[in-house]
Amino acid sequence: MPAQYLSFRCSLPWLLLLLQALCLSYSFFAFPGTRDVYFNLYPGFQDVNHMVVFGFGFFLLVLRRYGFSSTGFNFLLVVLGVQCSVVVEDFLYSLGVQHDVVDMRSLAKAVVSMTAVVISTGAVLGKANPLQLILMTLVELIFFYISRCINRTLLQVSEYLSLMHVHLFGAYFGLAVTSRFPEAPPGLDKSRSTPKSDLFSMLGTVFVWVFWPSFNSLLADSKEEAVLNTCLALAVSAVAAFMLSALTSKDGKFRMTHIHSAVLAGGVTVSYSAPSIQHPWIAMILGLLGSVITILGSHCLQRCFNPALKLQDTSGVHFTFGLPAVLGAVASVVLRVVERGIVQQWNDLSSLGYLAFVDIGAFCQTISTALITGLITGLILNIKLLKAVHVSKYFDDQLYWEFPHLSVGF
């Protein structure tokens, strides 16, 4: 392999320095919040911060020889992306001739938005180098904010709902990006997991599971309802994951891959409607359906659709986040129409139809923007200037990290 692919000394440090200098320069012109009205967000923000940095960092640790990169690159992207997200959102917001205010709420929205990048990273895990990941982070944050602006200004979608499209956008943006990367050789040993890597990945899943109620309630108006409904949905999806894993395996044993993905499905599915669900049994049913669609989707997608579409979804973000997000978005439309119809006693069907049209439009716009921009981003990331990794070097830490001795671990 050519030597220029093995060193990023002349590119990566200077790119990081440039981005950090831009964020630092922006801070001279941003106005700090003068009131502490949003400081009550800090406990929830800290939970979400743990979830994104620690939880997802270990959640992505599924490859036997990519552990350093999975956790290290995730941390780098989060700490850099949060700053860039604040800059991007406040800069574009300032175009409306309003002062930029950096407060606890803007920081909370930045961390929530970074979840889209973390999910997309799981799709290209092991194939993209640090330069490509940083560029993907910047592009995705910009287009995710644009998608949110379209939903909020043109379709009048609430800010909470526009942010909860983060799972949908992240999953399909990542799938579109990874479809533009060359396929790994079949049977590549480095693309497999080990019991040790599965154990660490499950540890990350448990942390994400524990902190998910804080994620769904961080920016919600009805925080108590959001926490209650998310906890119930997560509990049911976890129970259903163990049940369905034993039922679908040949020997009746549990599969770690099923548990790893399906226990989170309830939190994703209920995220759109968690603050507005009035009956706990609805959240529990959504958690059950989310787990079902995740496990069944993993069988169908990996055996049928992924080979046909030439998708290599390294961490299974499609059936862990994408499909449950689609289910949750559809369920949210149904629940809102039914709730509004009961209040109006089904007298004004035109307003109910308009409400459904707006929500479905926001859902379709988010997926379309994610797929189109993801395909374009994938093509850009594979230009020669960005030192794309050769397929023989996929899923290998030794391309980026120093090892005191040659390790055969994950």
TrEMBL record:
<dbReference type="InterPro" id="IPR029020">
    <property type="entry name" value="Ammonium/urea_transptr"/>
</dbReference>
<feature type="transmembrane region" description="Helical">
    <location>
        <begin position="44"/>
        <end position="63"/>
    </location>
</feature>
<protein>
    <submittedName>
        <fullName>RHD protein</fullName>
    </submittedName>
</protein>
<feature type="transmembrane region" description="Helical">
    <location>
        <begin position="226"/>
        <end position="247"/>
    </location>
</feature>
<dbReference type="InterPro" id="IPR024041">
    <property type="entry name" value="NH4_transpt_AmtB-like_dom"/>
</dbReference>
<feature type="transmembrane region" description="Helical">
    <location>
        <begin position="199"/>
        <end position="220"/>
    </location>
</feature>
<dbReference type="InterPro" id="IPR002229">
    <property type="entry name" value="RhesusRHD"/>
</dbReference>
<keyword id="KW-1133">Transmembrane helix</keyword>
<dbReference type="Pfam" id="PF00909">
    <property type="entry name" value="Ammonium_transp"/>
</dbReference>
<comment type="similarity">
    <text>Belongs to the ammonium transporter (TC 2.A.49) family. Rh subfamily.</text>
</comment>
<feature type="transmembrane region" description="Helical">
    <location>
        <begin position="133"/>
        <end position="154"/>
    </location>
</feature>
<feature type="domain" description="Ammonium transporter AmtB-like">
    <location>
        <begin position="37"/>
        <end position="384"/>
    </location>
</feature>
<feature type="transmembrane region" description="Helical">
    <location>
        <begin position="12"/>
        <end position="32"/>
    </location>
</feature>
<keyword id="KW-0472">Membrane</keyword>
<feature type="transmembrane region" description="Helical">
    <location>
        <begin position="355"/>
        <end position="383"/>
    </location>
</feature>
<feature type="transmembrane region" description="Helical">
    <location>
        <begin position="317"/>
        <end position="335"/>
    </location>
</feature>
<feature type="transmembrane region" description="Helical">
    <location>
        <begin position="75"/>
        <end position="95"/>
    </location>
</feature>
<dbReference type="GO" id="GO:0097272">
    <property type="term" value="P:ammonium homeostasis"/>
</dbReference>
<dbReference type="GO" id="GO:0008519">
    <property type="term" value="F:ammonium channel activity"/>
</dbReference>
<dbReference type="GO" id="GO:0005886">
    <property type="term" value="C:plasma membrane"/>
</dbReference>
<feature type="transmembrane region" description="Helical">
    <location>
        <begin position="281"/>
        <end position="305"/>
    </location>
</feature>
<feature type="transmembrane region" description="Helical">
    <location>
        <begin position="160"/>
        <end position="178"/>
    </location>
</feature>
<keyword id="KW-0812">Transmembrane</keyword>
